Task: structure prediction
Amino acid sequence: MPAAERPGVQILRCQRCGTLDAGPRLLCPKCHASALDPQEVDGAGTLLSWTVIRRAPARLKSLVPYAVCVVDLDAGVRVTGRLRSIEGGACGTRVHCVAREGAVAIFSAEV
Ligand SMILES: [Zn+2]
Result:
């Protein structure tokens, strides 16, 4: 998928101090301001950790098995999402967002 076609990741940016946060939340974790703007940032980052979910809550049972992950985005914020493949990858692998399902970012290894 060409970089220009890749979806971004939805995060929150504090209007007062500029802190980026994965959200959802009502107050900035740094300055406690309530003015948090939704913002889309580039979905490229580094895979920090992941695990495969085989017993899911009822609303996610149709997805089983699926992999959830934690990604440090190059934009400077840590987000959770899902991996496209349950094969995962080594921690430290470069990944990018390839799709979004609602607010959930789906990541895959960069190729
Ligand atoms: Zn703030």
About this structure: Residues 14, 16-17, 19, 28, 30-31, 33 surround zinc ion (CB under 6 Å). The chain has a mean pLDDT of 93. Strands lie at 9-14, 20-21, 36-41, 44-53, 66-73, 78-83, 94-101, 104-109.
